[in-house]
From TrEMBL:
Cofactor section: Zn(2+)
Protein name, entry field: Replication restart protein PriA
Domain Helicase C-terminal: 549-715
EC number: 5.6.2.4
Length: 807
């Protein structure tokens, strides 16, 4: 199996000795095509020579034992079939990139080259790109020039000495090493030591270090260089000097990176409602493999999970705890470590390559510290061998679905299959279950357990709808705040309580518009207006990261009447700073949470009450637990409701109920204030009474009527290309071919709200699959049409994206 977008596997030849050594799941280095070298995975060892090509020899065997197991291969195969994506894509997504070394030609700029005038325009493009980036891969060059045959251009650049290239194979995993100190063998007897201390009588610091060393060595454990420095109160250079004098020696031991140092506590005692839920889950598991726990916000679902986890650990099996967002891991990891200490490993994309390799190996070897894996989406790919339980927390979250790149899998649904492969159980938890999940539960496909009390019997927050149309009319708005919202904030702050304000847009304002001519600055690469970010006085595109300085005058008519419309988190933060100068204001959105510890810093500061008011985007809605928040404000509910998507209302409900759930979690009932132009909207009414049942019923009705999930399944086809006409021709051809087979169940073609991104035009089609129609057969037919499409020369350059169960 090769990590390239192909369904097929390939046969390579090995010697008999190699064949005897090799096992399924080991990696081998192979060449493919003319120049490429890849890491491939052995999936079968056989003696049938391929008929269509000659089997090449492998380069070398990379593993001593398998790093991928049977269950994984089965799971990947399912993902590939179900989501209609090449197995090679799943393979690439599954392994930490450090496991997939390949020869990639990397080009560098020649710093000595100055005569830019001898370069052609195309050559200059690449040279220029290298001034912003220290290196480029061939792939990136292909992207920049938007053409495939780039080798001649690169050759020319090399000939002109503008660049140089390096064929590089990167072997990557470096275990973290810890430095230890021991005595040099010269000093093996007491007499030598006596002499040594005398010799050092004038080098006081060095003498201290040696004396400390003896003190520490009485414990008979290896002595870390760092510990010795602290204990002797000397610097690293003192130890280094002693090593240079052949008195000490350094040596290194491998250690795993993720270590928990604190003590562990026993699990909390469940209250009667939690206890009952736990028992119901366990009973339900006797018959069903999947159970949905519908527990209101702050009902203590996490504590129920921990009991289940403990039971599974006791039976000697592994546990996977899935979270939708890395933002959440910082709190949950602390809570779980409290109970399970060093039995937990964390796995997600903000971890370095090395850290991910380490977790992979620990899971593979079923190490004590990999008994519980806490992770985002991609942790469903880990080499579990004995998975007893999967918990999918906040199972309704749409971020469980990967949408770019392929494989476009839903981690929740893939986890259900994974649990099944391991004959384990899976618990889906949420205060606002996805309609699909709740539907499956009511159809008896999943077990259903309800938990309707907040822990400590705190009432759900009081939710108040504020009609800002009326407030505007009566001139009771200050910036984006109604008088009532300000009053509630002031009251909370007076009580020394904290406030969360939700605004689902980042930046300062999403639209800049000229008051004279109505023109608004657009992204040159995408069909979208630029968002104003005040802090940098910049306009930015949220689709392609294009940015430029905010102009002083209108680009169309030249008048200096540019005005900002709409508002984002940044603007709210600034308004708050003026309204509440004595309080500290924090902001949590994509712009403030970059870097591995971005979230942790803000969440930590809020937990420590260093921030009084936290403004943020939907990141704030995801299961965070703060004890002192008494007020949650939603500044503009309408933008969520007026979204052209069949899931918009469901999502708006989930989002608002989840953010509201951050209020009043520990002591007393909290408050929620929702500003809207449309207080009679049925979803807002349902949010204000937390009436999930009614929302469910109403939405389900719509879905039935308009043929959407959970009744119908959806497969979305997207075409992308920089030439509009070509995409248009392609989509029309495709529409007709699909319509021939599926008739009225093909919708489209449509252009998405942002119809051009990064200079690529986008068109969509949706195929609806009625409940009784065979899914497998439908996919077969679609695949056939796709093949024909790709055989048309004119269509071949178009990017063809298939998204099964699209969101
Ligand atoms: P949920 O995940 O359902 O929103 P949490 O599990 O975060 O709720 O629980 C809410 C709060 O109540 C947390 O601070 C948690 O520590 C506390 N809590 C829940 N159950 C218990 C219990 N049985 N004993 C003590 N504290 C609990
Ligand atoms: Zn203008
Ligand atoms: Zn853009």
């Amino acid at each position: 199996m090769l990590p390239i977008p192909l369904h097929k596997t390939f046969t390579y030849s090995v010697t008999e000795a190699e064949a005897n050594f090799l096992e399924k799941g080991m990696r081998v280095a192979v060449s493919f095509g003319k120049t490429k070298m890849y890491t491939a995975l052995v999936v079968e060892i056989h003696t049938t020579a391929p008929t269509l090509y000659e089997a090449k020899d492998i380069h070398q065997i990379l593993d001593e034992k398998p790093i991928v197991n049977e269950q994984q291969l089965k799971h990947w195969q399912w993902i590939s079939n179900y989501y209609m994506c090449p197995l090679g894509d799943v393979f690439r997504a599954a392994l930490p990139s450090a496991f997939l070394l390949e020869s990639e030609t990397i080009i560098y700029k020649n710093e000595a080259f100055t005569d830019e005038s001898i370069l052609t325009d195309t050559e200059f493009l690449i040279f220029e790109a290298l001034q912003h980036q220290s290196q480029l891969t061939i792939h990136q060059v292909v992207d920049i020039l938007d053409k495939k045959k780039v080798m001649p251009i690169i050759n020319e650049l090399i000939k002109k000495s503008a660049i140089y290239i390096k064929e590089e194979i990167y072997e990557v995993y470096k275990p973290k090493l810890i430095k230890y100190v021991r005595m040099h063998p010269n000093y093996s007897n007491d007499a030598d030591l006596e002499n040594l201390l005398n010799e050092l009588s004038r080098a006081k610091k060095q003498r201290d270090a040696v004396l400390s060393f003896f003190q520490l060595s009485s414990s008979k454990k290896p002595i870390k260089a760092k510990d010795l420095e602290t204990n002797a109160n000397v610097s690293a250079s003192i130890l280094k000097a002693l090593v240079d004098k052949n008195i000490f020696e350094f040596y290194h031991l491998k250690t795993d990176r993720i270590n928990y140092k604190g003590d562990t506590n026993s699990l909390k005692e469940l209250n009667e409602f939690q206890q009952k839920a736990l028992e119901e889950i366990e009973t339900s598991f006797q018959e069903k493999d999947v159970v949905l726990l519908h527990g209101i916000t702050s009902s203590g679902k996490t504590e129920v999970y921990t009991k289940l986890i403990q039971n599974v650990l006791d039976s000697g099996k592994q546990v996977l705890f899935l979270l939708p967002e890395i933002a959440l891991t910082t709190q949950i990891i602390t809570r779980l470590q409290h109970y399970f200490g060093n039995q937990i490993s964390v796995f997600h994309s903000k971890y370095s390559m090395n850290e991910r390799v380490e977790v992979w190996n620990n899971v593979l070897e079923n190490k004590p510290k990999a008994q519980i894996i806490l992770g985002a989406r991609s942790s469903v790919f880990l080499p579990f061998n004995n998975l007893g339980l999967i918990v999918v927390d906040e199972e309704h979250e749409t971020s469980y679905k990967q949408f770019e790149p392929s494989p476009r899998y839903n981690a929740r649904d893939s986890a259900i299959v994974l649990a099944n492969i391991h004959k384990g159980k899976i618990l889906l938890g949420s205060a606002t279950p996805a309609l699909e999940s709740y539907f499956n539960a009511t159809q008896n496909k999943y077990g259903l357990v309800e938990l309707n009390r907040r822990f400590g019997n705190v009432q759900l927050p009081k939710i108040e709808l504020i009609d800002i149309k009326d407030k505007h009319k009566k001139k009771l708005m200050k910036g984006h705040f109604s008088d009532r919202m300000l009053q509630l904030i002031t009251e909370a702050l007076e009580q020394k309580e904290q406030v969360i304000l939700f605004q689902n847009r980042r930046g300062f304002s999403p639209v800049v518009e000229c008051n004279t001519c109505g023109n608004s600055p657009q992204c040159p690469n995408c069909d979208v207006s630029l968002t104003y970010h005040k802090y940098r006085n910049e306009l930015r595109c949220h689709y392609c990261h294009y940015q430029r300085a905010m102009p002083n005058s209108c680009g169309a008519c030249g008048s200096n009447t540019l005005d900002t419309k709409g508002f984002g988190t940044e603007q709210i933060e600034l308004e708050l700073k003026e309204l509440f100068p004595d309080n500290s204001i924090g902001r949590m959105d994509l712009d403030t949470t970059r870097g591995k510890f971005g979230y942790q810093k803000i969440i930590g500061a809020f937990e420590a009450h260093e921030i009084d008011i936290l403004v943020g985007t939907q990141m704030l809605s995801k299961g965070l637990d703060f004890e002192n928040v008494s007020l949650v404000g939603i500044l503009n509910a309408d933008s969520m409701l007026n979204f052209p998507d069949f899931r918009a209302h469901e999502r708006a409900y989930q989002l608002m109920v989840q953010v509201s759930g951050r209020a009043g979690r520990s002591k007393k009932q909290g408050n929620v204030a929702i500003q809207t132009f449309n207080p009679h909207h049925q979803i807002l009414q349902q949010v204000s009474t937390t009436n999930y049942a009614e929302m469910y019923k109403e939405q389900l009705n719509d879905r039935w009527q308009y043929h959407y999930p959970p009744y119908y399944r959806l497969i979305k086809i997207t075409l992308k290309h920089k030439d509009f006409i070509r995409v248009d021709n392609g989509i029309n051809w495709l529409f007709k071919s699909l319509q021939n087979v599926f008739g009225e169940h093909v919708l489209g073609p449509t252009a998405p709200a942002v119809a051009r991104v990064r200079n690529q035009y986008i068109k969509n089609l949706v195929i609806k699959i009625p409940p009784k129609q065979s899914l497998a057969k439908t996919k077969e037919q679609i695949a056939k049409i796709k093949n024909t499409f790709e055989a048309v020369k004119d269509f071949r350059p178009i990017r063809f994206i298939l998204d099964v169960d699209a969101y």
